[in-house]
Each structure stands twice: as structure tokens, then as C-alpha cells.
Amino acid sequence: MALRSEPTARQMRLALELRRLRDAAGLTAREAAALLGVSAPQISQIETGLAGVSAKRLRRLAAHYVCTDEVFIDALVAVATDRTRGWWEDYRGLLPTPFLALAELEHHATFLREAQFLYIPGPLQTEAYARAVYAYRVPELPQEDLELRVRHRMQRKVILKGPAPKPYEAVIHEAALRIMVSDRATSRAQLVHLLELSEADDVTVRVIPFDLEDFAGAASAMTYAGGAVPKLDTVVRDGPQGAAFIDSEAQLAAFRTLFRKVEAVSLDAERSREFIHRLAKEL
User: Fold this and answer.
1) Cβ neighbours of residue 90 closer than 8 Å, sequence gap 6 or more
2) Among 144, 6, 159, which Cα is nearest to 86's?
């Protein structure tokens, strides 16, 4: 079987989890290969995402690694045998890989939680809002690249409005609601759009107002994507060099706590809708 030239983020996550299981078992790649009856390079290719692994071989590896978490193993098998070619693949070679990785992550997530303090979360943005955000980039994007990014962002709405919407919760600071990334009409339309989306059964929007006392969590922006099991959760954070995907158990635990903290101080869904409605009337 030919090796993959560009493993997807999901394939790379499977590879990483298999490497973690081997490390936890205290085995070298050569030892794991001997137990499986393959060559050491084959184990290396599996652990770097360049080669796939069958369900049978994955279960044998898990047994050799003394992993007894059957639910976790089943989740890994589901990843290994998944053949989904999602809509994001149409952008391969056209957009940077993290754009595809984020869409793939959202597609497979069991739930999504976002905390944002300066921008409306991507899946909740209007087309005009998204275009204004991308147009502000330095150096400026060629028009074709800008339109590709906007179109990709609009397609991400499938997680909210598609045939199988994801349970989605966004905690948004008042700053993000008030910052006008474009003109007043765009800001008003964005708030109205936010209200419309928040009416969906699977969407919860909560607001953190400016006048909240003792709030020092403005650095806690994140997208938290639930996996088939908690070990396969992922946190995405934006940084100067692009999106960072975080998946270590210790960091995931920290971000779960951070999200609970910002969620706990936010207004409930009904009061948040009233708050956003009032802001929209002011514009």
C-alpha cells in the first residue's frame, strides 16, 4: 500500500495516540514490530500517519500495549477505519492545512464549545463579518484567496445548520459583540444573525458583560471539540503563527476547567439573548 503524502489531522491524531500507548507500555518501535510480526519501519510509518492500520492490527497492538480501555480502543478503531471524504477536501492545496484540520475536527466532534473575547466565533459569523476580518490581514490576501477563506468559513456552518447539527455552546465577551470589524450595518446584521442562530435547539450563546467584577479570564479563548471519548478531545487556539491543536490529557483537563470558569460567570442563554437584542437596537 502506498504511503500517504499528506496525512489528515485525524490520521495524525490516531498515529499520536498509538505512539502514546507504546510509550506507556515501555516498548521500543522495534519491540512493537516484533510482537506484531512486521518491520520497525512499518511501526514508524503507522506512528507518523504515513500508513494506515487495520482494525485487527490496531487491536493486536492495543493488547500488546496492555491497554484495557475497550471504549478508547473502539474509538481508535473507528478513526482507523473511517473513510470520510468531507467537503473540506475540496480546499486541499488551496488553503493552508489548518483550515482543513479545523473543519475535519468540527465534523467528527461530538460537541463543540467556544470561548471568544475579541471576535464572534467563526461558525457564527456572517459573510460580511468574515470578509472584513480576512480583509484586515497584513499583507493583504489576493482577492481569490480571501474569497476562498470566506467560503470555507461559511461552509463550516454545516455543524449548526446541517443534517446532523452538533451541540454547540459559545461564550462571547461583550467586547467581541461591540467591536465593529466593518461598518455599523455589518455589526447590526451580525448581532441579528447571532440571535437567529441562538434560537436553534442545539445552539447556546452566552455573554460575559463588561461590568462583571473579578473576571481575569480574557486570555482563555478556545475552541473545545469533544471526541468520541474524552481522551480524544481537542482544543484549538489561535496564535501569531496560526491555529494550535492541543491534545495532551493534562492540557485538556486545564482547558475543561477554564471553560467551566468562563461559562459559570456568563449570563444564561435567555439573558444573553436579551443583552444581544439590546446591543443590536443601539446600533
Assistant:
1) none
2) 159
Q: What is the mean pLDDT of each run of 10 residues along the chain (283 residues)?
A: 85 97 97 94 96 96 96 98 93 95 97 98 98 94 97 98 95 98 97 97 98 94 97 91 89 97 98 98 94
Angstrom distances, CA of residue 126 to CA of 59, 95, 130, 151, 215: 45, 20, 6, 11, 28
- Name the residue among 219, 207, 205 with its Cα closest to residue 255: 219
Q: Which pLDDT score, from 0 to 100, does residue 183 have? A: 97
Which residues lie across from 246 on neighbouring strands?
Answer: 235
CA atoms within 13 Å, Cβ hemisphere of 192: 10
Q: Which of 207, 223, 110 is nearest to 167 (CA)?
A: 110
Q: How high is the pLDDT of residue 1?
A: 58
What residues contact residue 185 under an 8 Å CB cut-off, 6+ apart? none
Q: Give the predicted TM-score (pTM) of the model.
A: 0.95
CB 247 within 8 A of CB 16: yes
Residue 86: φ, ψ to 5° = -80, 175
**AA identity, residue 152:** H
